Amino acid sequence: MIYGDYHIHSTYSKDAISTIEENITSAINKGLKEIAISDHNYFHGYGIKFGDRAKINAEIERLRTKCNIRVLKSAEANLIDQTGLIDLSHEEQKNLDIVVLGYHKSYAKARWLTKFVPHIRMRRNNPKTIAKNTQAYITALTNNKINIVAHIGYGAPVNTVEIAKFCKEHNIFLELNGRKNCIPDDEMREVINTGVQFILNSDAHNYERVGDVRLGLTIMEKYNIPEWQIANLNKLPDFTKRC
Fold it and tell me: What pTM value is reported for the model?
């Protein structure tokens, strides 16, 4: 069984319907030992409001004293452009236990706040865009203390193998997402062979789906990924090794 789920959204994300407390209760009922609340950050179309990050952290700290499960403070930061910019400051990162990084098609709040390579270019499926997108991920991972790369390849095509190699070298987990798999079949074998550590996450947007990693387990079985390569299967991941 999985011991932890590190990609869970609460009602602070506008596309989620369960409170932090409801998610915690669901995780306890399902026998999980550890979870992370990773709400969409500011530039996502359904992201949190400016000022909500402190509220989320305070609520998690309050709920920690009432439950017998470890609840991590996290955020699903957004990769904004091909320069590797993300929407989570270094100061905010210091106040979190872990950071999840995802690219999303929706970035509603970004245009008026920063000048960057037009977001739409990251969606083009051609060699030049793939190379730039791949470098954007590596730059973001280099410049920030990111622990998990979420749903790699979603919305922005990349060289997944190169990103997996970087993640392997720096002890960053590559997510097998509970809602979508965007790693092409012809790359998955090479990704596995890098030795990167995968992590099974639900990407839950309601309490019922907390801990639901059936899609990730299906991928694991399909490609015969060994158990030692799944960081939260019958064990807890060690986020302190991030380098």
Answer: 0.95
User: Which residue matches tokens 């998955």?
Assistant: 188
Please report, for the chain, the start and end positions of each structural domain, with discontinuous segments joined by +: 4-241
Taking residue 96's Cβ as centre, other Cβ atoms within 10 Å add up to: 22
Q: pLDDT digit string (tens) for 194-224?
A: 999 999 999 999 999 999 999 999 999 999 9
Q: Is 114 helix (H, G, I), strand (E, B) or coil?
A: coil
DSSP-based three-state secondary structure for 36: strand
CB-CB contact of 100 with 77 (8 Å):
yes
Query: How many angstroms separate the CA atoms of 149 and 138, rounded?
Result: 11
C-beta separation of 101 from 79 below 8 A: yes
Which H/E stretch holds residue 211?
none
Amino acid at 140: A
11 class by beta-carbon count within 10 Å (0-12 exposed, 13-18 middle, 19+ buried): middle
List pLDDT tens digits, range 160-185. 999 999 999 999 999 999 999 999 89
State the alpha helices, DSSP H only, in the chain: 20-29, 52-64, 90-94, 127-143, 160-170, 185-193, 214-223
Tell me which CATH homologous superfamily contains domain 4-241: Metal-dependent hydrolases (3.20.20.140)
- Please say whether the beta carbons of 154 and 102 come within 8 A: yes
